[in-house]
Write a structure and sequence with these properties.
The chain contains 14 helices and 19 strands. By secondary structure, the chain is of the alpha/beta class. The strands form three sheets. It has a nine-stranded mixed β-sheet, sandwiched between helices. Strands 14-15-19-16-17-18 form a six-stranded mixed β-sheet, with helices on both faces. Helix 3 packs across helix 9, helix 11 runs parallel beside helix 12 and helix 13 packs across helix 14. The chain is globular. The termini are far apart. The structure holds adenosine-5'-diphosphate.
C-alpha cells in the first residue's frame, strides 16, 4: 500500500493524468467501477476497485474510501491538524487560518468530503507542520467517517444552521452530525453564542477555547465600515485588539476570524496579525465592487438564511442611497422550503427593494412586501435591475448555487459599463 504514496490519485475518468492511481468511487449517480477499464486505457497506472474486474494493474480492496482514508493518514505528518466544520463559513475560516498560519497546508476548494479530504492530502500535502482540514457533512456519520481516521488536534465548529436540512432530515441530525468533529478532536473550539453547543461541550472533558459575539475567550466586541475598510475590535481573554481589514466583511466573517484566532491559540501557534490586513473576499462570496457609482455585492456562490441575514445587516450598516437585492431561492430545504423562504422574505423586507428570479424550486415562496419585480428570464430581470439602479445604490446578488445568479449579475455589470 505504501508504495502508492507519492503518486497522483484520480477519480474522474474524464480527468486522468498519466500515471495516476484511479480510485473507483461509488457515487449516487455513477459507479467509478464502470470507468476503471477506460481509466487504465487513458494512462492510469493502477485502478483501486472493490471487486475483481479482471484488469491488469488492479488493486482490490474491501472499501475504496476506507482505503483512501488510511493511505491519507499515513501521508499526513503534520504536528497539528486543525479541523473546521460548520453550516456557514468553512471555506472562509480555512482561508483565514491559512493566512494566520503562513506555510500551513489546507484542503483546497471544496475537497471537504470523505473522498475530497483524503485525495487532497494524498495529492497536495507536502510535509507542512500545520494542516487545516475542512470537514463537510450532508448527513449524520459523514464527519465521523473521515475524522475517525484523519483526527484533528483542534476541532472548530463555527455554527449550526439549517443548510441542507432537506437532505439531513431535521435540525437534530445537522447538530449531532457537526458534533462528531468534537467527538474526535482533542481541543474544542466552540461558539459561545450557541447555547446548545455550550451545553454539549460542557459534558466533554477536553480543553476548550470559545469564540463569539461579545462572549467567549475570543470575542468580537464591535465593528464599523469606512469606505471599503472594516474596523473590528476583539477581546482575546483580557486583552483588547483592534484590527483593520482592507475589505468589507460581515458579522459572520468577523466571527469566523474570532474562531480562527481561537483555533490558533488552541493549536499553540502564534497569530500573524499583520496577515489579516491582506485578506480579501473572493469572487462570488460577498465580494464588493464599484461599477459606475453603484456598489455591487457578488454573493452568488451560495445562499442560506444566516448568510442572507448577515449580508442584509451589513448593507444596513454602510452608507448608501438605496439598498437593493436580486435574489433567488435557497435549495435543499425539503419540507421546510416554505418556512425558510417566509423567513427570508422578512429579512429582505429590511431593504429598499427586491428583485426576484422566478421559476426555481422555492422561488414562489419569496414574497417580501418590497418586491419591485419578479421575472423568470435572467436577461429580462437584469434589464429591469439596470433600469432601476441609480448612482449611490448598493445591490446584493444572492441565491443557491444551482440558480447561477452570477448570470444575472454579469449581464447587469455588462449593461452598466
Ligand atoms: P461554506 O464553505 O461553509 O459553504 P463559505 O465561506 O463558502 O462557507 O461562505 C458561504 C456563504 O456563507 C457566503 O455567502 C458567506 O458570506 C456566508 N457566511 C460565511 N460565514 C458566515 C457566518 N459565520 N455566518 C453567516 N454567514 C456566513
Amino acid at each position: 500500500m505504501k508504495n502508492l504514496l507519492g503518486k497522483k490519485f484520480c477519480y474522474d475518468s474524464r480527468k486522468i493524468e498519466h500515471g495516476c492511481v484511479f480510485v473507483a468511487i461509488k457515487g449516487n449517480k455513477v459507479d467509478g467501477h464502470d470507468f476503471a477499464k477506460e481509466a487504465l486505457k487513458k494512462g492510469a497506472s493502477f485502478v483501486v476497485v472493490e471487486k475483481d474486474m479482471n484488469l491488469s494493474n488492479q488493486i482490490i480492496v474491501d472499501n475504496v474510501i476506507d482505503f483512501l482514508l488510511k493511505l491519507a493518514y499515513v501521508q499526513l505528518k503534520a504536528k497539528k491538524v486543525i479541523g473546521v466544520t460548520g453550516s456557514s463559513g468553512k471555506t472562509f475560516t480555512k482561508e483565514i487560518l491559512n493566512s494566520l498560519l503562513p506555510g500551513s497546508f489546507k484542503t483546497p476548494g471544496n475537497m471537504n468530503t470523505e473522498v475530497g479530504v483524503p485525495i487532497s492530502i494524498l495529492n497536495e500535502y507536502k510535509e507542512q507542520e500545520v494542516a487545516i482540514i475542512e470537514y463537510a457533512m450532508n448527513k449524520r456519520g459523514d464527519i465521523k467517517r473521515i475524522c475517525k481516521v484523519i483526527k484533528p488536534d483542534v476541532g472548530v465548529v463555527l455554527n449550526v444552521g439549517r443548510q441542507h436540512i432537506g437532505v439531513a432530515g431535521n435540525f437534530e441530525n445537522i447538530f449531532y452530525g457537526k458534533m462528531e468533529l468534537f467527538q474526535c478532536s482533542n481541543i474544542l473550539i466552540y461558539n459561545a453564542n450557541d447555547e446548545r453547543m455550550i451545553e454539549y461541550v460542557e459534558t466533554m472533558n477536553k480543553p476548550k477555547v470559545s469564540f463569539g459575539m461579545k462572549k467567549g475567550d475570543v470575542s468580537l466586541l464591535e465593528w464599523s465600515y469606512i469606505d471599503n475598510i472594516t474596523k473590528a475590535k476583539y477581546r482575546i481573554y483580557d486583552e483588547e485588539k483592534k484590527v483593520i481589514l482592507n475589505d468589507i466583511f460581515h458579522r459572520g466573517h468577523l466571527l469566523n476570524i474570532a474562531a480562527a484566532i481561537a483555533a490558533v491559540i488552541g493549536a499553540d501557534q502564534k497569530v500573524c496579525w499583520e496577515c489579516l490586513e491582506k485578506i480579501k473576499n473572493v469572487k462570488g462570496r460577498f465580494h464588493w465592487k464599484n461599477v459606475g457609482g453603484i456598489r455591487i455585492i457578488d454573493d452568488t456562490y451560495n445562499a442560506s438564511l444566516s448568510a442572507f441575514d448577515v449580508a442584509v445587516e451589513t448593507m444596513l450598516k454602510v452608507n448608501a442611497k438605496r439598498r437593493l437585492a436580486v435574489v433567488g431561492p435557497i435549495f435543499e430545504q425539503g419540507k421546510f422550503s416554505k418556512e425558510t423562504h417566509e423567513r427570508l422574505s422578512k429579512i429582505l423586507e429590511k431593504l429598499d427593494g427586491v428583485f426576484i428570479l422566478d421559476g426555481y424550486e422555492g422561488s414562489e415562496y419569496i414574497k417580501p412586501k418590497n418586491i419591485i419585480v419578479r421575472a423568470k428570464n435572467k436577461d429580462k430581470l437584469a434589464e429591469k435591475v439596470v433600469n432601476y439602479l441609480r448612482n449611490g445604490d448598493i445591490v446584493l446578488f444572492k441565491a443557491s448555487r444551482g440558480v447561477m445568479m452570477e448570470e444575472v449579475l454579469y449581464k447587469v455589470e455588462e449593461m452598466l459599463k
